[in-house]
Amino acid sequence: MSVDVTRNGPAQAATLSVGCAALVAACVRLAAVPGGPCASALAAVAAVLPGGAQAGEFAALQAIFLSVWLIVWIVLDRALARRELPVGVHQTLFLASLGLATTLWWPPVAEALRARWS
User: Fold this and answer.
1) Sequential DSSP letters for the chain
2) Which of 25, 38, 53, 92 has a CA between 20 and 30 Å from the CA of residue 60?
3) CA nearest 24: which of 91, 73, 84?
4) Is 91:14 a contact under the CB 8 Å cutoff?
5) CA-CA distance, 2 to 66, in Å (whole number)?
6) What are the pLDDT digits (tens) for 11-68?
7) Burial profile 34-61: b = 16 or more Cβ within 10 angstroms, e = fewer
8) CA distance linking residue 100 with residue 19, whole number of Å
């Protein structure tokens, strides 16, 4: 297997897949209202994972994060493998997605959004 070091598509695919996975995990956490169907689904996923009983919701969110990250990375890597992409646009998307995901994980923001939607 040869690697073309003049193309940055695979690197962009790696960073964008992390940002996408972080957003999905944050949205799932936001949707996991205690006692709701999403929270019970997270509990079921956590029960299947090794050590999930002790880690609880966090283990399920990590499993979701890793699954989404790997799937999106594979898809984007194949799509962007032979491309030279502008770094600024993709890195801005990456940083914006991480910033939004972090903001959605913050308890005051999550509670305010849950209160507004319920």
Assistant:
1) ----TT--HHHHHHHHHHHHHHHHHHHHHHH--TTSHHHHHHHHHHHHSTTHHHHTHHHHHHHHHHHHHHHHHHHHHHHHTT----HHHHHHHHHHHHHHHHHHHSHHHHHHHHHHH-
2) 92
3) 73
4) no
5) 27
6) 889 999 999 999 999 999 888 888 788 888 888 888 888 887 788 788 888 889 999 9
7) eeeeebeebeebbeeeeebeeeebebbb
8) 9
